[in-house]
Structures are given as C-alpha cells and as structure tokens.
C-alpha cells in the first residue's frame, strides 16, 4: 500500500523519519512524498528520487513474493481445470474424459470436486493427439516473430505473453514456444519468470559475453540452459534484466572498434548466434522488443521471419505507427543489404480495441483497411480481465475461469475472442510450413 504525503517543508529526509514515527509506518507501507509549494535544491531532489526508487522497489518485491509461492518452476501456480474446462481443452466429452483419466491414472479429485492441472491436460493431449506434434518437419524453420512498434504502451508485451501462452494452452498441436525478452524493462520476464535470481543467466549475459563456459561446455548448451521453463508446459522464456540495457553501449563500442579497423560491423550477429543455438528446440520464438530503435530492436527485426505490429485504436497512435512504418521502410533497406531474406508474414494488429466505442472500432477498421492483407481476421479486444490478470502478472491463459477471482464471464469472453486470434496465428504458421515443403 502506498501512503502519499504532500509536504510543504523542504528537508525531505528529516520529515520522512518524523512522519514514519508519527504514523508508525512499517514495512507494509511505502511512503511517497510529493513536495509542493517549495523549491528543492539538487540534493533534496536527488533524495526524492532515491526515496521513490527505493519505495517502488520495496512495493514490487512484496508483490513478487506474493506471486512466486506456486508449484511451477517459475514460482507461479500451474493452471487448473474443472471437468467442463478440461473437456473443452481436450475436445473430449465427459464420459471420454473419465475414461481417459482412468486409463492414464490421473488423479482428478480435489476434495469432492473434479480438478486437474495443465500438466494433466498436456498428458491427455499427448495421449490423444499422438501424431499432432509432428507438425514441423526437419525441412521447416522455426517461426521467429518480432513484436514491434516504436511507440510505447501499444500492447507489445501483452501480445507476446498472451499469444505465446495461448499457442501452448489453446491449441492441440503442443507447439514448443520460446519468448526472448529483448526489452530491458523486463515486463515479459516478470510475467514468465517472476522468480528470476541473480544467479540466473539472461539474454543480456549471452549478448554481452558476460559468462565463462565450464570445461567442455559449449555456447549452445549455455544458451539452451538460459531458456527457463514456465508454469505452462512447452513454454520457455529467455529473460532479461534492466542492466542488460548495457548491451546498447557495448554494441556501439564494438561498432566503433570495427569501423576504426576498417571492418564491417554486423549488429545482429550476437542475437543470431543465440537464435542459431536454440532454434532447433522450438517451433515458435517470440521476441518482445523495446519502444526504441537500438541494437536490440534492429537485431530482432533481422533475426525474425515474421512481424506483428500492435497498434492502439487512437488517432495519435495511428499517426505514430504511420511514422514507424516510414522508419521501418528505411531500416529494412539496411536489413535487406545485410542479407535479410524477407518476412513470411507481417501483421498489423489493432490492440485493446473497446468494442463499445464507436471511435475505437472505426479507427481499428481504418487501420485494418489500410493494412489490407497484412492483418489477422480479428482485433485484440480491450478487456478488464486482461488488466486484472496483469496485476498478478498473468495472461488470460494462465488461469481458467473456475479459478478466477473476478467476473468469470469477462475472463471467458476475452479468452474466447483471443482464442480466434491464436488460431489465426496458428493457421499462418501452418501455411508457412506447408509452403516451405512445396
Ligand atoms: N487488450 C487489452 N485490454 C486491456 N488492457 C490492455 C490490453 N493490452 C494491453 N493492455 C494494457 O496496456 C498497458 C500497456 O501494455 P503493454 O505493456 O503490453 O504495452 P507495451 O507496448 O509492451 O509497452 P512498452 O512500449 O512500454 O514496452 C498494460 O497496462 C496492459 O495491461
Ligand atoms: Mg513492453
């Protein structure tokens, strides 16, 4: 809980101690001072910033501790299903379900209720759809999707985490999916590996070369070990931490060094080395990118073979996305010169569209018309359930309606509409793989 105090006095540090004593503030509360009506000198300003940083860190840590007490390797809980939900997820009817869990010796009792978790659902899918996994042949490449828009807050991370989780939970093919978080803000990492520790390797460590290989260990093995399991079977994450932002500086220095020596600098090589090391283990790799165009974003655009551009349905966002496309055109000319073979798909995706707002649906439809063949058949709708789940760093596919503690119909409704989008993405993936075999 935050306690916001508006102070007119100048000495923030002394007043913090005083107010803490008076209010008997303990560690459960964070205090944010808003100093108004007075000028602060630079030291006082710094003290305010330090206090804000410390308090928000404390508050985040409390939240993180709450969401990392679960049974999954990333500290979250495995999704559970009641009988109806388990039947829907596996396309079985009730009688077939009872027989299948019996055949597979799955314990489905939670007190008097039927309850199985996502690992059991995975077992049932494996048993029922035994040939379905063989969708990607050795002739097919992994689908590498960059989710990108230079404008901040357009839903890149939400799309990355929701689509990657949904591809694993909502389809029967049991795709092996990896999310590589390339945004040093680390939001996708917090969704998929909230229990990241200082000892864990990150994508930044691999990019910067911040590692020492054990004797006999190869880079490929280290890169594979940096793909951590999540609370969703078949979904892994290569996380990032804020200090990995340093890669931008390291990469710039490398560029200067190479240019001084009269050699060509290839910015995407570090990320490509990682992708090459892990891509055999995954069918789909999703890259969440930051809202700026540095070495990480340009590398993501280079290593990707598909692109999703989330766009918010507002006039300002339309304008900035249009500028982003101008920029992308210029940037792609450089990527093309570096040898990029072209994207298999580019999808502009109107995101967080409120279907009750005429203005938003009208802008979304203009975006759709302007994008003609380059968009999915449906939009990613706005939903209170997405925000609710986000508070606990969950996507809408991390939990079933039966375990959701707010309005269940709102979760079900956004799950249903987003499932259509997941199936549209799946159809594109299948199409790309089919074309490759021709
Ligand atoms: N479909 C949606 N319905 C409701 N809220 C949404 C939806 N999509 C995204 N949001 C909310 O919008 C905010 C911004 O989303 P998100 O963090 O995914 O954007 P981003 O493009 O990754 O931002 P950044 O550029 O900072 O990385 C978040 O609070 C998220 O919960
Ligand atoms: Mg983001």
Number of strands: 14
For the largest sheet, list the strands in their spatial order. 9-10-8-11-7-12-13-14
Poorly predicted regions: 1-13, 21-29
Round the mean pLDDT to the nearest integer and report it. 88
Q: CATH topology of the largest domain, anyone?
A: Rossmann fold
Q: Could you state the order of secondary-structure elements as H and E?
A: EHEHEHHEEEHEHEHHHEEHHEHEHEHEHH
Radius of gyration: 24 Å
Give a description of the structure:
48% of the residues lie in helices and 13% in strands. It has three domains: 66 residues, no CATH class; 49 residues; 295 residues, Rossmann fold (3-Layer(aba) Sandwich). It has an eight-stranded mixed beta sheet, with helices on both faces. 37% of the residues are buried. Helix 9 crosses helix 11 and helix 11 packs across helix 12. It is of the alpha/beta class and 438 residues long. Helix 1 links the parallel strand 1 and strand 2. The chain is built from 16 helices and 14 strands. Adenosine-5'-triphosphate binds next to helix 6, strand 13 and helix 15. The site of adenosine-5'-triphosphate has 19 residues, from helix 6, strand 13 and helix 15.
Question: What is the compact description of this entry?
Answer:
This protein has helices at residues 12-23, 42-67, 83-90, 94-103, 118-128, 156-169, 187-192, 203-208, 219-225, 246-260, 269-278, 295-303, 315-337, 358-371, 384-391, 408-437, and strands spanning 2-7, 30-35, 80-81, 109-110, 113-114, 116-117, 143-147, 177-181, 228-229, 235-238, 284-288, 306-311, 345-353, 380-381. The chain has 438 residues and is α/β, with parallel strands linked by helices.
């Amino acid at each position: 809980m935050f306690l916001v105090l508006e102070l007119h006095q100048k000495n923030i540090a002394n007043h913090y101690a005083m107010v803490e004593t008076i209010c008997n503030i303990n560690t459960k509360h964070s205090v944010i001072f808003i100093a108004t009506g007075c000028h602060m000198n630079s030291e006082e300003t710094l003290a305010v910033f330090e206090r804000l940083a410390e308090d928000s860190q404390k508050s985040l840590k409390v939240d993180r501790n709450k969401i990392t007490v679960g049974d999954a390797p990333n500290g979250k809980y495995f999704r559970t299903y009641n009988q109806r939900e388990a039947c829907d997820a596996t396309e079985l009817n009730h009688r077939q379900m009872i027989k299948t869990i019996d055949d597979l010796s799955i314990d489905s009792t939670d007190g008097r209720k039927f309850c199985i978790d996502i690992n059991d659902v995975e077992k049932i899918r494996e048993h029922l759809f035994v040939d379905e996994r063989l969708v990607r042949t050795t002739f097919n490449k992994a689908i590498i999707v960059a989710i990108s828009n230079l404008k901040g807050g357009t839903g890149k991370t939400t799309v990355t985490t929701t689509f990657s989780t949904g591809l694993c939970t909502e389809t029967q093919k049991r795709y092996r999916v990896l999310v590589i978080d390339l945004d040093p803000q680390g939001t996708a990492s917090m969704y998929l590996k909230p229990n990241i520790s200082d000892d864990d390797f990150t994508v930044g460590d691999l990019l910067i070369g911040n590692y020492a290989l054990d004797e006999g260990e190869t880079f490929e093995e280290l890169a594979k070990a940096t793909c951590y399991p999540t609370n969703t079977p078949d979904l892994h994450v290569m996380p990032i931490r804020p200090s990995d932002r340093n890669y931008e500086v390291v990469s710039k220095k490398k560029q200067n060094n190479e240019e001084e020596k009269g050699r060509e600098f290839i910015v995407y090589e570090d990320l490509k080395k990682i992708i090459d090391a892990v891509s055999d283990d995954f069918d789909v790799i999703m890259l969440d990118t930051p809202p700026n165009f540095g070495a990480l974003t340009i590398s993501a655009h280079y290593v990707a073979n598909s692109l999703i551009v989330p766009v918010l349905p507002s006039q300002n966002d339309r304008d900035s996305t249009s500028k982003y496309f101008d920029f992308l055109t210029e940037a792609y000319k450089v990527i093309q010169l570096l040898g990029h073979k072209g994207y298999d798909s580019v999808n502009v995706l109107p995101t967080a569209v409120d279907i009750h707002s005429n203005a938003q649906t009208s802008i979304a439809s203009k975006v759709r018309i302007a994008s003609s063949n380059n968009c999915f058949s449906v939009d990613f709708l706005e939903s209170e359930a997405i925000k609710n789940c986000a508070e606990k760093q969950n996507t809408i596919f991390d939990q079933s309606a039966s375990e959701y503690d707010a309005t269940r119909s709102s979760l079900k409704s956004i799950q249903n509409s987003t499932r259509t989008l997941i199936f549209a993405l799946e159809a594109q993936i299948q199409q790309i793989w089919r074309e490759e075999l021709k």
